[in-house]
Automatic annotation (TrEMBL):
MF GO annotations: ATP binding; ATP hydrolysis activity
Family, similarity comment: Belongs to the ABC transporter superfamily.
Name of the protein this chain belongs to: ABC transporter ATP-binding protein
Residue stretches making up the ABC transporter domain: 19-251
PROSITE patterns in the record: ABC_TRANSPORTER_1, ABC_TRANSPORTER_2
Family matches, as SMART domains: AAA
């Protein structure tokens, strides 16, 4: 056997991370700079959200991490070993779901998994059926297991791809937009599954263009825009970096908006009985008093916790719906 993934070495260097990239860059043949000098560190045991709008370079990065495409420059280490050079040593420990899982449409979901399991030389054939049944059950596909994969909906295909990634215990799961095509119930199920896997000690690296999804399930996140990393760290710290919004609930929104502007509150937006603005630096009690003095009937007054979206907007100065 060649090199083994370096679990011991990692704990000896806690800063090293399960995935570490340095100046990782990909320029496609057409000239498109899809990933630009990426320094990424994914801590062991984290649920790491890789967040960015469409076209920001998430899938390209994941394809480089999995050794599917070569970087133009820079390095990527997965489980302590360089990729793509150590792909054969690393990949058996990594479960991956990447855009459009490769499935045989003419086979049932169950037979697709049996086939994939059989392709794994380390998988014991005697326990194959049980392994496949467990994986199908974990992703909620048991009832549809006998149906041909070509008759699966997009969400069912995603689930089958996920089941394939779960066929054996993994140290790292890499999931590219795992909730793509799923309805809200399906998205909840995947979030629960990700939390379960993480509590078993698996590091989960998942990409998404949905900010609230990342906030709900991830311990850490990195934010990409146009191929560049703009921030990474614990989710709580990322959103703490942005100031929250002042929210006033009132039956007099027009007056409230006017008074807030007079009080120096920026970006005032009135919608229904809610008037919001950027939380000012000054004492909020004064702002509240000014509203009351002006005869505004204040039913609610407070600062909403900043979301990851606020942090993104604060960092990039643009909304989250940009394309690369
Ligand atoms: N094979 C390719 N050849 C040329 N350009 C590509 C190729 N694949 C992706 N790109 C370009 O690279 C950039 C990043 O694409 P990528 O698929 O990595 O983004 P993404 O963040 O995964 O987006 P999405 O959220 O839509 O999945 C985009 O501008 C895209 O058009
Ligand atoms: Mg993608």
């Amino acid at each position: 056997m060649g090199e083994a993934p370096a679990r011991e070495q990692e704990s000896a260097h806690p800063g090293d991370g399960v995935v570490v990239t340095r100046a990782l860059t990909k320029r496609y043949r057409g000239g498109q700079l899809a990933v630009d000098g990426l320094h990424l560190t994914v801590p062991e045991g984290s649920v790491f959200g890789f967040l960015g709008p469409n076209g920001s370079g998430k899938t390209t990065t994941i394809r480089m991490l999995m050794g599917l495409i070569e970087p133009t420059s820079g390095t990527a280490r997965v489980l302590g070993l360089p990729m793509p050079r150590s792909a054969r040593a690393v990949l058996p420990h990594v479960g991956a779901l990447i855009e459009g899982p490769a499935l045989y449409g003419f086979l049932s979901g169950r037979d697709n998994l049996l086939r994939l399991d059989a392709a794994d030389p380390t998988a014991d054939p005697r326990t194959r059926r049980a392994r496949v049944a467990t994986a199908l059950d974990r992703v909620g596909l048991t009832a549809a297991a006998g149906k041909k994969a070509k008759a699966y909906s997009l969400g069912m295909k995603q689930r089958l791809g996920l089941a394939a990634a779960l066929l054996r215990p993994r140290r790292l799961l890499v999931l590219d937009e795992p909730t793509n095509g799923l309805d809200p119930q399906g998205m909840r199920e995947i979030r629960t599954l990700v939390r379960e896997l993480a509590s078993d000690g698996t590091t989960v690296f998942l990409s998404s263009h949905l900010l609230d999804e990342i906030e709900q399930v991830c311990t850490h996140a990195a934010v990409m825009t146009r191929g560049r990393l703009i921030t990474q760290g614990p989710v709580a710290e990322l959103s703490a970096g942005a100031r929250g919004r002042l929210v006033v609930t009132t039956p007099d929104p027009a007056d409230a908006a006017r008074v807030l502007k007079e009080q120096g509150v920026a970006d005032v937006v009135a919608a229904g009985d809610r008037v919001t603005g950027e939380a000012p630096e000054r004492d909020l009690a004064e702002v509240n008093a000014a509203l009351v003095r002006a005869g505004v009937r204040v039913r609610g007054f407070g600062v909403e916790r900043a979301s990851l979206e606020d942090a993104f907007v604060a960092l990039t100065g643009e909304g989250f719906d940009v394309a690369g």
